[in-house]
Amino acid sequence: MMSTRSRWILAISALVIIPAFFMPIWSITLKAPQYPDGIGMHIWMDQLTGHERHDIQNINILNHYVGMAEIHEEDFWEFDVMPYIFGVLVALGLLAALGGRRWMLWTWVTLFILLAIGGLADFYYWGYQYGHDLDPRAAIKVPDMTYQPPLIGSKTLLNITAYSWPYWGAAFIGASLLGGLGALGYEYRQRLQSLYERLFSSKSSNQEVEA
Amino acid sequence: MFSNSSNYLKIGVGVLAAALVALFITGCPAQQAALDDREAAQKVYKAPGEHDDLYAFLSGGYDGQVSVWGLPTARFLKQIPVFSQHPETGYGYSEETKALLESTHGFIPWDDTHHPHLSRTDGVADGRWMFVNANNTPRIARIDLTDFETKETIEIPHTAGNHGSSFVTENTEYVVGATRFSVPTPNRDVPIDQYENEFQGTITFLTVDEETGEMDLAFQILAPPFNYDLARPGHGVSHGWAFFTSYNTEMAHTMLEVGASQADKDFIVAVNWKRAEELIEEGHGEVVSAEYYHNKMDPGTGIAVSETKDSVLLLDPADTEGMIYFLPTPKSPHGVDVSPDGEYIAAGGKLATVIPVHSFSNMLAAIENEDFDEIIDGIPVLNYESVIHAEIEDPGLGPLHTEYDGQGYAYTSAYISSEIVKWSLDTFEVVDRIPSYYSIGHLMIPGGDTRSPYGQYMISMNKTTRDRHLPTGPKQNHTAQLYDISGDRMEMILDFVTIGEPHYAQAIEASIITENVKNIYDLAENTHPRMIPSSRQARVEREGENVHVYMTSIRSHFTPDNIEGIRVGDKVHFHVTNVEQDWDMVHGIGIMGATNAEILVPPGKTKTLVWEPRSEGIFPFYCTAFCSALHQEMQGYVRVSAADADVDLLYYTGDRPTE
Lengths: 211, 659
Description:
The complex is a heterodimer of chains A (211) and B (659).
Chain A: H1 4-16, E1 26-32, E2 35-43, E3 48-50, H2 55-64, H3 78-99, H4 102-132, E4 153-157, E5 160-166, H5 168-187, H6 193-200, H7 204-210
Antiparallel strand pairs in A: 1-2, 1-5, 2-3, 4-5
Helix pairs in contact in A: 1-3, 1-5, 3-4, 4-5
Chain B: H1 2-26, H2 29-43, E1 54-59, E2 65-71, E3 75-81, E4 102-103, E5 106-107, E6 117-121, E7 124-134, E8 139-144, E9 149-155, E10 160-162, E11 167-168, E12 174-181, E13 183-184, H3 195-198, E14 199-208, E15 215-223, E16 227-233, E17 241-247, H4 256-259, E18 266-272, H5 273-281, E19 286-297, E20 304-315, E21 324-329, E22 333-338, E23 344-349, E24 355-359, H6 360-368, E25 372-376, E26 379-382, H7 384-387, E27 388-392, E28 399-404, E29 409-414, E30 419-424, E31 430-435, E32 440-444, E33 457-462, E34 479-484, E35 491-497, E36 505-509, H8 510-514, E37 539-543, E38 546-554, E39 557-559, E40 562-567, E41 571-578, E42 587-591, E43 599-601, E44 606-611, E45 617-622, E46 635-641, E47 650-652
Parallel strand pairs in B: 15-20, 38-41, 40-46
Antiparallel strand pairs in B: 1-2, 1-36, 2-3, 4-5, 6-7, 7-8, 8-9, 9-19, 10-12, 11-12, 12-14, 13-14, 14-15, 16-17, 17-18, 18-21, 19-20, 22-23, 23-24, 24-27, 25-26, 28-29, 29-30, 30-31, 32-33, 33-34, 34-35, 37-38, 38-39, 40-47, 41-44, 42-43, 42-45, 45-46
C-alpha cells in the first residue's frame, strides 16, 4: 500500500491536469519583417486558435506560396481524443490514489510518460508532414528547402522565424507528471534516501517528515 | 621660473578676455542659427517607426477632402475623400459610395470643404466623428474615426454657401451651419436687385444621434439678408448658445468688395438654442417645404442610400423672443472664437483695426437690461459698449481667426500683415508676434477651440506659398507652418506643404483615436447583399443585361478569374469581396476600358465596380494594389462577345469546368 501522503500527492497531481483543459498547451509564433509582433497559433487539447482571431487564415495564406498544406482544425483527429485521454488520465490518477496500490501509481506514471512521448512524437510528425509534403505546383520553390517548424525552440525558414514553445497548459500537465514522479519518489524514499537527502535536505517540509 | 609662468597665465587670461569681448561685440550668428535649427528639428523629430503624438485633420478646400497628418512631424497619413470623387480608392465611383454625392442638384463629384470639426463630450474633442462642410453646394458630412471614412452627407436647404459650418456644440447636441450667400427662401426667380426685400439668410441646427452619429435637420432660423461667415457654439458658461459672424450688413448684391465694406460694424449673431428648443416645444416655428438629400451608409452593408426629405422647421425671429440677438462688431468679422471658459468671444474683424472681444456675461446683462440700440427683422441689436469687454490694440492687419492655449493666451491670425499675434486674456494686450509665410488664413491649436486646449503646438494655414519651397510652377500647393507655443515666445519649428487649400483644421491626442481604430472589417459582420464569404460561393449570374460577378480576392488571385459569356451592351457588376482578414491587406480591381475608376477593397469589405463593355474582345482585369509577391500574377480575363452572340456564361479559377 502507498502512504497516505503519496496518495494525496497523486490525487492532487491528477487534478492539476484540469486547468490544462481550459488553456492552450502549445504556442507556435511566426515572425517576419511584415509581422514584427508575429502571427501564430495556440494548440489546445481540443482546438486550434490563432493568437489573434484571423492568424490561422493568415498563416495559411503565407504558407500556400511555398506549397504547404492549409492548416484546418478539423484535420486533426487528436483534438477529438485528447480531452478523453487527459480525462482518463485524471480519473486513473484519482482511482490510483483511492486504490492506494503502488502498482497503480507505477501504471499511472508510466502511462503518462508514454502519452507524453507519444504526443510529442505525433506533434513532430505533423510538423514533419507540413514541412515536407509540399505542393509540387507551389509558386515559390527553393531547392532542398523544407519548412518543418521546430519541435521546441526557434528556426529561421526563409523570411520567417518560427518559434515553438510549450504554453501554460503544458506547464500544468508537466507539473502533474512531476507530482506523480514525486509520489513515486516518496514511496521509494528509503531506497532513494541518499539521493533524497541530497535533493531535499534544505526543505523544512522534509525535516517535518523525518521528525 | 615662477614669475615667467605667472606672465604666461596673465597673457592667457588677457587673450581669453579679448576673445570673449570680441564674441560679445560681433556675436556668432551662424553658429547661433545652427543651434536653433537643431533644437527646432528635435522638436519635430520622431524616429522611424515612432508614432506622432497627435492627429491633425486639415480640410482640403477645393479638393473636397480632408487630409490627416501626424503632429509634430507633419507626416502625411491619409486623404479622406468626402465631397469629391477619389479615383485612388474608388470613392464616389463604386456603387456603394455614389449615393453620398447625391443632392437635389443631382450627382455632384466635387465640393469645397472648409471647417472640419471633431465631435465633443463636455466641450472636449472625443475622437468619435469628424464633421465637415461643403461650402459650394451646402452639405455637411460625417466621417467615422474608427476607419477614417465618410459615412453620411446631408444637404442643407435654404442655404447657399454653407460656410458657417460644421461646428459642434459642447456635447455634440448639434452641428450648426449658416449661409454665406443670402438667397430667396424658398429659392425662386426674382430680380437680383430685389435683394433687400426678397432675399434671406438662414442659420441651421442639425441634431447628432448620440450612438450612431447620424445627423438630422432640427430647425432653421430666418435671418436678414446679410452674408454669414463663421460660427462657434458656446461652451462652459456659454453652453446653450451659438455665435455666428455676419458681414455685408450693408446688403450689397454686387461689387461686395466695396459695397460690403462700408459700415463700421457688422454683427455677431448670438443664438440661444436652448431657448429655441423651448419655443419649438411651445409650438413656435413653421414647417415649410424644403427638398434636401440625406445620404447614409449602412454600417453592415457598407452601402450608402439616399433619402429625400421634404420639409424643415423654420423659426422666424419676429416670433421667437429671447432666441436671437445681434452684437455689433467691427468690421466684416470673420472668426468668432469662444475662450476655453466660454466667457470671451473674440471676433476676427478682418477690416478692423482692433480685435474686439465680447464678454458673454456682459451680453447676458445687456439682454436682461434690454440694452438694445434697435431691432432688425425682430432681432434686437445689443449696445456695443455694453457687450464689448476689450479691444485688442495693434493686432496686425486683417485679423481673421483666434484660438486659445489654455494658459491664458489667445492667438489671432492676421492675413494682411501675415503674422500671428499672441495676446493676454488678462491684460488684453498683445504680448508676442511672429510672421507666417505667407498670408495666413486660419490657425489651429490642438483643442484650441475647446474647453481644454492641448497648448503645445499651433499650425498656420497659409494662402500663398511663393518662395517657401522648391518651386512647382505658377500654382503652388499651400504651406502650413508649425509653431511651438509652449514657451513665452512663439517659435516656428516646421514648414510643410499641404494638400488642396486647408481652410481650417482640428487636432486631437492620438491615443483618443488609436484605441478605436479598426485593423480590418470583420467579414462575419459584412452584410452586403452581394458579399460572398469565400471563393466557394464565387459565381456569375445574368439578370437580363445586368451581369453580377460575385468575386473574391485573396493573395494572390481572384475567383473567378476567367469569365466568358459577357456581351456587348451588358452592364457588368463586379462585386468584389476582399476575404482577407489581415491588417492593411488591400486588393483592388481595374478593368481595361472601364470609364469610371478602379476600386480598392479593404480587408473584409465588398465593393462594386460597374463596367459596360462597348466592344467585343478579351478584356484583362488586375489587382491594382501591390498586395503580395505574386501581385503581378493577380489578374484575369473577361471574354466579351457580340450582343447577339450565343456564348454561355462560364467562369472559373484554375481548372476550366468541363461541359
